[in-house]
């Protein structure tokens, strides 16, 4: 059995969270469903879940999967069966998780810009925790509650002012960013929440960013959360039940190391030992990232200006991480297509069909020589892959497939072209938009 081998590194060892599908299955899926197609392996998602569960065994905790990493209903249902709750960041995600079968008590809601209507829907769904990120957001929530005579469990998402060494776009835990309530404002807001009718201050939380490799960052943040919780307890706030340490656990991409889970566990143990509180965790990428690949076919080969191009049928609209975050993703050659020299390797740019020079999946990458028709697997595409895809260049979004023990199922159809213009009428219905610039000139004169 030939496991997918990603460039430079042999992939396939269970327990590393790396895709463990035989390449013959990938060939069959590509032939049956077409490309580009996202392929997720249920066994790899379960394996990651079990690794986290083992690392945290014996410490009170709950895992709320961060839906934005991969929000396909079948992936959500799989995680629900394993015992996960969910962490959502929009009303759309709320509808999605309710549709997937999660109950309100399994949902926590984060995000800096929750609208009034999103807050109302969260209150109506009686979700486990609404993590507020500012005093004004809390007052909007309090207003929603008093007008509906509902109630809500509230957490404060703290900005613990912890710097992280990850891509600037995925840092969220230090001051000067839009996320969380600044450390020096937390106590006042917490006291205000504690005094307000209809809400219970149930937790404090943080989310430091994404793809964080250094476990000491979590330990530092946890220390701040513990300090805040103790200070509030001294001031008579005794309703706090949980500390939420967010997500962001790094997985291995290429040669980058994953987060040391034992360091994370140390922090979580401290929470229990020093406060007796339950820890909430919100991993997204950790659970699904390396359980998926994006399968794509080589369309053409081309050379220009001393560079050698492999033109594939997946674009930055399908998988944006390389162009948006300069992310490195291993590329596994599943089949080599029409090549003259079976033994050779070459250094190439792997690019897509989109009309942007930033439309690449890999630059200066040494791969076994591939020709037209070759099948490639872009590794580590199970998180922030399909969920960040778009229809730019009027390209229908890719299909998604789930593999489980030698079987596969289509879990999202390839988008149809007619879906691309859904909602765009051919006969326009004009409505009065008020005065026109011409009219205003007349009225001034
Ligand atoms: C995105 C996000 C996560 C998950 O981040 P990962 O890097 O995928 O683990 C968790 N919590 C919040 C609040 C988020 O916004």
Give your account of this protein's structure:
With 445 residues, this protein is an alpha/beta fold. It is 30% helix and 23% strand. It has 12 helices and 18 strands. The strands form 2 sheets. Strands 1, 11, 12, 13, 14, 15, 16, 17 and 18 form a 9-stranded mixed sheet that branches. An 8-stranded parallel β-barrel has the order 2-3-4-5-6-8-9-10, surrounded by 6 helices. β9, α9 and β10 form a beta-alpha-beta unit. α2 (42-55) runs parallel beside α3, α5 (116-124) crosses α6 (135-148) and α8 packs parallel to α9 (261-275). The chain starts with 22 loop residues before the first helix and ends with a helix. Bound molecules: pyridoxal-5'-phosphate (PLP). Residues 66, 68-69, 87, 89, 110, 207, 210, 246-249, 282-286, 383 line the site of pyridoxal-5'-phosphate.
């Amino acid at each position: 059995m030939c496991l997918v081998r990603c460039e430079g590194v042999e992939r396939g060892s269970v327990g590393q969270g790396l895709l463990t599908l035989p390449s013959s299955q990938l060939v069959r899926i590509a032939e049956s469903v077409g490309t580009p197609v996202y392929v997720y392996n249920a066994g790899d998602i379960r394996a990651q879940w079990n690794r986290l569960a083992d690392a945290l065994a014996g410490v009170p905790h709950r895992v709320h999967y961060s839906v934005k990493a991969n929000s396909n209903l079948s992936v959500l249902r799989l995680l629900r069966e394993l015992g996960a709750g969910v962490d959502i960041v929009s009303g759309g995600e709320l509808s999605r998780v309710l549709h997937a079968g999660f109950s309100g008590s399994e949902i926590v809601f984060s995000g800096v810009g929750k609208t009034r209507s999103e807050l109302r829907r969260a209150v109506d769904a009686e979700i486990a925790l609404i993590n507020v990120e500012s005093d004004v957001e809390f007052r909007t929530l309090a207003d929603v509650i008093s007008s509906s005579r509902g109630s809500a469990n509230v957490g404060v998402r703290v900005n613990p002012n912890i710097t992280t060494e990850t891509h600037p776009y995925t840092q969220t835990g230090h001051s000067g960013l839009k996320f969380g309530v600044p450390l020096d404002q937390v106590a006042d807001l917490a006291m205000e929440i504690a005094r307000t009718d209809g809400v219970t201050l149930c937790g404090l939380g943080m989310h430091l960013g994404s793809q964080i490799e250094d476990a000491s960052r979590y330990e530092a943040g946890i220390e701040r959360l513990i300090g805040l919780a103790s200070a509030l307890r001294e001031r008579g706030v005794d309703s706090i039940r949980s500390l939420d340490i967010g997500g962001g656990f790094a997985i291995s991409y290429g040669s980058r190391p994953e987060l040391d889970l034992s360091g994370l566990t140390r922090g979580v143990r401290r929470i229990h030992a020093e406060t007796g509180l339950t820890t909430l965790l919100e991993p997204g990428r950790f659970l699904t990232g390396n359980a998926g690949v994006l399968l794509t076919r080589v369309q053409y080969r081309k050379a220009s200006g001393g560079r050698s191009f492999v033109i594939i049928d997946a674009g930055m609209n399908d998988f944006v991480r390389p162009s948006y975050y300069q992310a490195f993703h291993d590329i596994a050659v599943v089949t080599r297509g029409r090549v003259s020299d079976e033994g050779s390797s070459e250094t190439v740019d792997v690019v897509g069909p989109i009309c942007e020079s930033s439309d690449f999946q890999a630059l200066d990458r040494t791969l076994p020589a591939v020709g037209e028709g070759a099948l490639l697997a872009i590794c580590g595409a199970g998180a922030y892959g399909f969920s960040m895809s778009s229809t730019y260049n009027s390209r229908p979004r890719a299909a998604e497939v789930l593999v489980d023990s030698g079987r596969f199922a289509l879990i999202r159809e390839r988008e149809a072209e007619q879906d691309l213009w859904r909602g765009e009428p051919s006969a326009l219905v004009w409505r009065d938009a008020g005065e026109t610039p011409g009219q205003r000139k007349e009225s001034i004169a």
